[in-house]
Amino acid sequence: MGVREISVEGKNLEIHELENVCDTLTGRVLTGSWIWDSALILSQWIITTAQSPSQPEFDLTGKTVLELGAGAAGLPGLTAAMLGASRVVLTDIEPLIPGLCRNVEANNLGHVVHVRKLLWGTDESLGEFDVVLMSDVFFDPDQMGALANTLKSACGERTRIWAATEIRPWTGDCLTALADQGFGVVELSGPVSVDLTGPGPEQRCGSFAVFSLVKQSDAGHVPPAFYDIWG
Ligand SMILES: C[S@@+](CC[C@H](N)C(=O)[O-])C[C@H]1O[C@@H](n2cnc3c(N)ncnc32)[C@H](O)[C@@H]1O
């Protein structure tokens, strides 16, 4: 916990993680209090792809960006702002909003980045975005219906949805639940190289992937193209 410095485009993002922020109902520490490895993966992935001249579709310059389940850090969204996005909205549940605001202020990105409370499936007034980012939100298949409803309200036909996740036993069920809601799911190529060494001495490991989700015009089942890139 504490403050982490993450390099984006030769500049450092200063990210404050939270301590002891608990769910008032369960008493459990909120999972969005700290940066998950998937956020580091997604941040690095958008830096790499946004700079690829052969893939202009990943250029974030002038794009509007929504991050869902941003936690208190909002690292992928803040990275998008550093890469030239014109407007970024970071969202999560209410107890994490002060942490998000603090990280926007710490990086002087308030002119581009806005913070908004959002429980999936409860607000259809977000408007449409060019890009939606998500990291480590595929943890409960039962939550995917609400997530899909939010995605449907924030996405038009041209919206790109990029999601990084650690591959866990239930990840496939989450992706299948989103496919059942009418989203095409495609794994984007190539493992992402990122330093997953945390602030402590421990080395972490795991399998991660970045997926593109595509809102289908006709709802129906779309089988997810899902496999473990490091398997
Ligand atoms: C594992 S954390 C990942 C946080 C951050 N994206 C990262 O990768 O560091 C999952 C996040 O999803 C958020 N989340 C879970 N269910 C949600 C819901 N129904 N509506 C809004 N956010 C939700 C949590 O509050 C938490 O911040």
Automatic annotation (TrEMBL):
Top-rank taxon, per record: Eukaryota
InterPro entries, per the entry: Methyltransf_16, SAM-dependent_MTases_sf
SUPFAM superfamilies: S-adenosyl-L-methionine-dependent methyltransferases (SSF53335)
PANTHER family, sorted: HEPATOCELLULAR CARCINOMA-ASSOCIATED ANTIGEN, OS04G0645500 PROTEIN
Descriptive protein name: Uncharacterized protein
UniProt source species: Stylosanthes scabra
